[in-house]
Amino acid sequence: MKFLFDNIYKDKSVFITGHTGFKGSWLSLWLTKLGSRVTGYARKPDTIPNHFSNLDLHINSLIGDLLDFDRLADSMKQAMPEIVFHLAAQPLVRESYKYPQETYSTNVLGTLNVLEAARKTPSVQAVVVVTTDKVYENFEHNRCYSESERLGGYDPYSSSKACVEILCASYRNSFWNLKEYGKGHNVLLSTVRAGNVIGGGDWSKDRLIPDIVKAASQGKTALIRNPQSTRPWQHVLDCLSGYLLTGKLLLEGKNEVADCFNFGPAESDALTVKTICNYVKACWPETQFDFPELKEQPHEAGLLRLDSSKARRVLNWEPVWDSGRAIESTINWYRSFYESGTVLSEADLEHYIKDAQHKGIVWTKQSMQPQ
Predict the structure, then answer these.
(1) How far apart are CA 249 and CA 336, in angstroms?
(2) How far apart are CA 322 and CA 315, in angstroms?
């Protein structure tokens, strides 16, 4: 991994919120392989098993709450990070209906605390805040949503993440204004939005592939809701490559990158839930699922697709794995875990990087520059 991202993360101090979660644990793994000194700040993993515990990473892992500002700020100051990746959140739509106050508190006030902690930490040069594709006011039209679309959110989770986008835009204007960069301050802030992310090690509730593999491991049939819902499915490493590329360019002082970006798969990889189930069945024939008629279910969007042309144009980013490869890798990860107790995360990362190098992806090259 010597030349990945121009080796910018080697020996860098990196602060990650949400490192015990699905995306955060994968990001922590990748950064340790890049030679970063990682400090993670998050609550304890909320599932057994969980990806973070199975990785046994050698990082500075701190257990804490985003709403405990003093502990968060002290932890960040002690770590002296050059870059902050903020991933910690209440990330589930259906949970947000049950616990709206916790969802807004964690996602909005938690982000506010992260931004304030970063403001009080002189070493910070870059902040990458992770939101979601669900920040858009979704009319379920048959088109892809770009970053210029109106923000919204039907459910509390989506709405809270739209609030986070507005909050970050305010901080970018008020405290880290681009006109004052290099004079009044030295911090660049980006927000990154990704779609339905899959990969080994996710055991969250009410998510499609985790529900299927958990049922398969117990010899049960998974009950699948909304089989015709269409989402932009991608492997976790594809969206993380976008986050890392964004962070790299921010650390290099590319102020045009201090903005919001979609990271989604090719338009052909926006697939229905039922299609994903068929892919899973082909990879793991023992999986069983049914599509019962469910009544009085909370609202979830039936159609959502992302336009990632801005990330391609400004960052030169592009996905590496299509949906078929992403599903194959994900299901092989779970089969290996349940059948032999083997965790394939490092092997998946190596395969992903080799495929990226073969495709000539920009972050695998030296001295890359955005157009």
Answers:
(1) 36
(2) 20
Neighbours of 293 (CB within 10 A): 5
pLDDT along the chain (371 residues), means of 10: 90 98 98 97 94 95 98 98 97 92 97 98 98 86 83 93 98 97 96 92 90 91 85 91 98 98 86 89 90 67 77 97 94 95 98 97 76 43
**What distance in Å separates the CA atoms of residue 104 and residue 273, rounded to the nearest whole number?**
28
The tally of CA atoms less than 13 A away on the side-chain side of residue 256 is: 9
Strand 289-290 to 126-130 pairing:
unpaired
Residues 6+ apart with CB under 8 A from 3: 364, 365, 366
Report yes or no: 247 and 126 within 8 Å, Cβ to Cβ. yes
Across 218-233, b (16+ Cβ under 10 Å) vs e yields: eeeebebbbeebbbbb
Task: Give the torsion sign (CA, 353, 81, 197, 164).
Answer: negative
